[in-house]
Specification:
By secondary structure, this protein is mainly alpha-helical. Helix content is about 65%, strand content about 0%. The chain has 14 helices and no strands. It has helices at about 1-10, 35-50, 55-65, 75-80, 95, 100-105, 110-120, 125-145, 150-160, 175-190, 195-200, 205-220, 225-235, 240-250. α9 (about 150-160) runs antiparallel to α10 (about 175-190) and α10 crosses α11 (about 195-200). The two termini are about 15 Å apart.
């Protein structure tokens, strides 16, 4: 989960000002968590502590109503509704928040079910649910089998041929159909955790979300350097740190 959070923080300052190069300051003074981290924490908290995913999202997002970059328009309307209902979205918000689920369950069926449930409270379009399942299952398969070739074959069975990684090649498109395969392509082209995050930011588009999804994959395969974990934790409030520490104690 911390891998996704690092990706979010690294991409936060580049979401609306893409760098399109791997040579950029990875974490600046302005780098901070966005809605991706808030929702990732909410889903992990729900899965570990028996919350309904909807209630957890509403509670955590109400605690942080104005994150850097804001919430997506449809999700913000959902948050502020008197009776929040799914809005048939396939936005990438369904996929960016589920990395913890790939660690917290023991079988692909359990991971897919939890990911589907976490998505369907907001993103109940089939592509939204699929995006959440693929992001969470990608983490599960990489931590379990640690095989890039099998991961690529499995991803391409779901999305077709993955895009070739190149800096600046990705348009700004906030869909699961874009974010998940692009994040997978960045991970597959990488040589280590930091390199994966740099590629996910440099590829362009919705930088923080692509880097969050890619960070989940990269953590499962490479692990996370201690210094990057420490830098990310410095940028988080204590309540979020508590959830991360509980998560880490569960999956060790």
């Amino acid at each position: 989960m911390i891998g996704a959070i690092i990706g979010d923080i690294a991409g936060s300052v580049y979401e609306f000002a893409n760098v399109r190069t791997e040579d950029f300051p990875l974490l600046t003074k302005e780098s901070t968590f966005t809605d991706d981290t808030i929702c990732t924490i909410a889903i992990a908290d729900a899965a570990m502590n028996g919350w309904n995913f909807k209630d957890a999202l509403l509670d955590w997002c109400s605690q942080y109503p104005h994150p850097m970059g804001g919430y997506g328009a449809s999700f913000a309307a959902w948050l502020n509704s008197r009776n929040p209902q799914p809005y048939y979205s396939f936005g990438n918000g369904a996929a960016m928040r589920v990395s913890a689920l790939g660690w917290l369950y023991d079988t692909p069926l359990e991971v897919a079910y939890a990911a589907s449930e976490s998505a369907s409270v907001t993103h109940d379009h089939p592509e939204g649910i699929k995006g959440a399942e693929m992001a969470a299952l990608g983490v599960f398969f990489l931590r379990t089998y640690r095989n890039k070739g099998k991961f690529k074959t499995w991803m391409e069975a779901q999305y077709g041929k993955l895009p070739k990684y190149a800096p600046g090649s990705n348009p700004f498109e906030e869909t699961c159909q874009n974010a998940v395969p692009v994040a997978a392509a960045c991970f597959l082209a990488s040589t280590g955790f930091e390199d994966a995050i740099r590629k996910a930011v440099a590829v362009g588009g919705d930088s923080d979300t692509i880097a969050a999804i890619c960070g989940g994959f990269a953590e499962a395969y490479y692990g996370v350097p201690d210094w990057l974990r420490d830098e990310a934790m410095k940028r988080l409030p204590e309540t979020m740190k508590d959830v991360i520490k509980q998560f880490e104690s569960r999956v060790r």
